[in-house]
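hi! just following up on the protien thing from before. the input was this:
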Amino acid sequence: MSRPVDQPSAAKPRDLRQDLAIAAQQTTKKRKVDGGENQEKQYLANKGSKIQELEAELKLSQAETAHLSQQLEQAKSTTQTDAERLATIQGERDFLNSQRSRERLDTEKQLSQAEQKILSLRKDLRHTEDAKTQAEEQAHLSMSEANSTKSQAANAAATHRRQLQQLQNDLQLAQHDAQQAEQQSTSHIRRQQNRIEAMNQQLELLQQQLRDVSEEAELHNQQRMQAEEKVAALQLQGDSASAAPSDDSILLQNLRDELAAQCADVAEARRLKYHVRNTEVLQEQLHAAQLRAEAAEKQVTQAEQLSLQLAELQSRQEVWDKVLQGLSGAETPENVLILLESLQTQILKSTELLGQKENQLAKQAGELQQTLKELSENKAALIAQASMCEQLSTSQSRLERRVELLTKERDSLKQILTLYQEEDPKPAVADGTPQRAARAAHVAQLEDTMADLRSQYEAGQQELASREIAAQNSLSQLTAAKQQAAEATGLLKTLQKVYEDQSKELALLQERLGKGEFDRSKTRVIHFKHNPEAEAVEKAQQSKCSTLQAENTALKGQLQKLEGHSAAAAAGSIDVAVQEAQITVLQHKVADLEKAKTRLSQVFKAQIAGFREACYQMFGYQVDVVAEAAAVKAGKAAAVSLYTLTPQHADDANAKLQFRMNREGKMQLVTSHYVQNRLSKEVETFIDRFNSIAAFTANYTMEQFQKQTQC
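and the predicted 3d structure came back as:
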């Protein structure tokens, strides 16, 4: 700040000259008055010394003024740099203001767009809610249609059950007829087997006879060969001796007769051999006939089964024809079942999708509300940043004013220095004590002004640094707000895209649900790896197979028992066999139930043991349930029970607490010797007064724990 002392300080050299002139006039007057040369010389010498001192002081003051001028130059340079910095800061501030204004406009546009999008999304939400209500109505309609189809299917199933019962009755009659036919076939097979056994016996006899005949034939062959040799020898002898006696002719005739008999035996052996071969052929034919009979029996059973299946299929076809007459788009019963399953799955999927859409819409509404909150926060942040920018602009204007004042003070100081330099540095001869004091005061004032300028300069620099930091913070906040706005716009775009996709998917699902159609080429039926329905069907088939096997084994046993009986007693035995088969089936069921019961009891015991151990570890009491003796004597063991609690931190073996539950469902403490002697006060306090068994047991546990853990 410029002070009013500056103008008199600028006029101080003129006052010194006037003083010197006055002092010179006084000296001339004194010289005239005194007239003494020595005194004048001495006086002049004193004045010369004083003038030298004044000149030295002037030199010192000039040096100080030069130093002050240097400091002023430095201050000028610093003020110039500060002005340049202020200019750059002003430019940056203008740029930031323009950028902020643009960003503010962009954010306002984005906010307006976001609000418009929010309004459109709200409209879409309303449309989706309307569509959801329509879809729910369509789902209700489809459910009603499915219920009607279920009722029709139930009626068809009832008719199927009735027809199945009738078919089972027919099957039982057919089984009865088949059993009779089987018995007849078994009797016929037995007769054939008896015949085969008789023929086998005859065959064995014939084979034995054949062996004997073959042995005899071999002997006859040997004898014949010997006889032929003899005949040949005799012929040779007859040729040599034509005039042989009559005995040789007789012998020859005998030999010929024996040869003829042996030939007849050989022919008989050949005939027997042929008969043996014929018996083997007959045996083979008999075996082939047996195979044919077995194949015929199998074919008969298969034909009966096929006839039964054909009748069942025909009845089913008639039933399904009647059922399918009122349905459109269903060609076979399988298609009807597939349609029902597909409708049920589509209804379930549509309900699931509707629930998912509702959840997604709720999430989107929450996200929209969150984005609205963020946008409002961004608006508040932008308003705060605008106020900060205004504050920065006002502070900058203040700094500019301070700089202008500093420049004015600098110019005034420059003028003072030029005045000092223009004045004559040679002072007049006079007494310089008041001028020296004034000069020292002026120098002190200049130093004070320089100190003030330095302090103001430092304060300005600090304020500029703080303003720069604030501007950087505002820039960072502005960039963060821009990023948040960009993220909000991106989120809105993604949400809008997801909403559009979901609305399209919902429209397609509603259209498909309304039409009740599906693409069979693209639709796949999901088969569970462990499908409960398939497992139930498999279990039913296994149980049916086991029952059939049991019936088969029972029937086989009954047939083995009734092999020697007549066909009249077979009708009664069939019922017995059926009853035995039912008994075996029931025995199998009882065994399965007993196995399940044992498994459940084992699991229950394990769970109870784990529960009791957990209670013992967590609450510090082992609970045992025992039937009361009086209830046992009265035959009410299941009605009244005693709950015995064994504490974990007990100091006595008899430290057990027994409780009984009355008819109202409340627990009552059973008095004992231990309770009366040790816990009478606790019983009176916690149970009788406050009616809290839990507090009683907890207090007892804490007391026992403190007793055991005290040092």
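The beta strands are 621-627, 641-647, 657-661, 667-670.
The radius of gyration is 67 Å.
cheers
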